[in-house]
Fold this protein.
Amino acid sequence: MQLAYSLHRLGVEHAALSADDAPGGMFRKWPLFQRMLSWTKPYTGFKPGSREFERHDWNSLAGDEPAHRGLMASVMDGTSYFPSRPEMQRGLELFAERTTLRFRYGCRWESTGKDGNDFVLKTSDGEYRAPRVVFAVGVAQPWKPLTPGLEHAAQYGELRPVETYTDHRIFIIGKQNSGFEIASGLLPLARQIILASPSSTKLSVNTHSLVGVRARYVQPFEDSVLAGGVVILDASIEEVKRTADGFDVHVRTTTDKPIQFLVDDVIAATGFTTPLRDLADAVGVKTFGQSGLPAQTHFWESISTPGIYFAGTINQGSKGLMKHGIPSNSGACQGYRYNARVLARHLAEQQGIALEKPTIPENDVIPTMLREARFGPELWHQRSYLARVVSFVPERGIVDEGVLPLMYFLDDGRFDGAAAITLESNGHEDLYPVVYVRHDGRIHETRLPDDPFLNFETTQHRTDLAHALEPLLSPSLSQPRT
Amino acid sequence: MADEELADTIAGFALFADLSTPQREQVVDVFSEQWFGDGEKVLRQGLSGSGLYVVLDGAAAIRIDGVDRATLRAGDYFGEISCLLGEAPTADIVAIGALRCLVLSSAQVESFLKANPNVMYRLLQGEARKVRTTTKWLS
């Protein structure tokens, strides 16, 4: 929906198909326990609809006009800053209503082919042809490993009504957010919960990123360390056997100790995969990893099949720099909404549509870049992944190239005499801005100071940025100004 | 590739040769899998934020100041020096054709090696071989 909106705004002709019957997608069904993990803060000091507000709103799609922005804040009842599932659904419906986007709903993509330069999609509503196709089909198909007996386990999405787990011993395979979400939901009812997988649990509050279990679901962890009945194990699952009154689960710990559990229920929270249908066999799209994500370029184009693009949570397959091991937020709305906007601009350029790239007066370069670092939502939500780029073009002056993938800026020879500002985290300190300057074929990286109040417009920031931009700016401007 | 298959694949790599099946499964769980297209940079000379990479499939060039110096293949690893020293990589690593790697972030390398002394010993052996090669070359 975000991509269709952004394409529409840029005047790119397209058809948008959805197998769903109406806007709202997976939020008509999930999350399982009916509340999102991503927040929308109602009181931020900025008006919903402003660009600055988007940093605090992880759930709204990114509109270009105030009436299309920050819509989630208007549909939430104020009892939590995590929207409920129906509120999330309503937010998307409202976006669709206000933007009058044209989707062909109830249209199922069935198979893919190639005819000359065009891809040919066979759908439940007939055939569509286009030289470029974007798939935004999510990473939401539950996946189970081939562990013997695991076919007996229920998957995320197949759980019975929660009250049927009352006083049960429950074995959950998987220790990521979906496993902990289920454990949190069943905690008031279950007699015992065992969570097991080979690697130890990471918590987002420790990784300073969305890597790891989110604080919302951390209660089973506390229950475990305070000996309340939850067991958290680093172990591989060797076999699940059905018994007359439950399950017999055999595991082997990472210290090579075999353990057997007799439980009433086994739940597989073992991850999700990408429903790419015939894209691999029919047109050669390469995938990787357990989630079957398509390998993508920095503009989210299939590495193996030019012309096939991806949007939405599938963008996790375009890893970016992953500096300090921290991935992008492309798996969530607050990340992929900006990817979609950048992709729409890229596709517009591919179609020969000239994009607006305003010039920036030389005096404004430093304040503009620092303001982006302080308030630019793209930089806040897609750290080390998206960057604001300015190029220094002799015949035009200083050009605002807009928001671009950082990897594109660093690795594509097109930018020389240019600078990019982004935000980064290293997993143990507060986030900080980083400036990359390309000059004479070399790239120089400058870390700007962090700030306890996240204010990146201080005198020190101006001084450091001016110093970093010295090779590009005229001497008078690279002197610090207060 | 499913985690079970990956755990089997790395059983053939010297770095992980001493690990049991559950330990290899843990490696696969702790590392993430990444895929790079032909010519794509995996690490960038002089830029911060490295990781320990193990080549699963394909090949990569070690490129210093634009000149290719050596080629890495399945089972080889790279990035360990910048992780251990906390410094930026001294070379670009560039995919030659399709390249698939396991990746561990620099922040996790210390705890991973301490928890897996067999891997640490194998990695030390690898570093010793590199020092020997360099010494021979210098002499």
Summary: Residues 2-139+273-350 of chain A form a domain with the FAD/NAD(P)-binding domain fold (CATH 3.50.50.60).
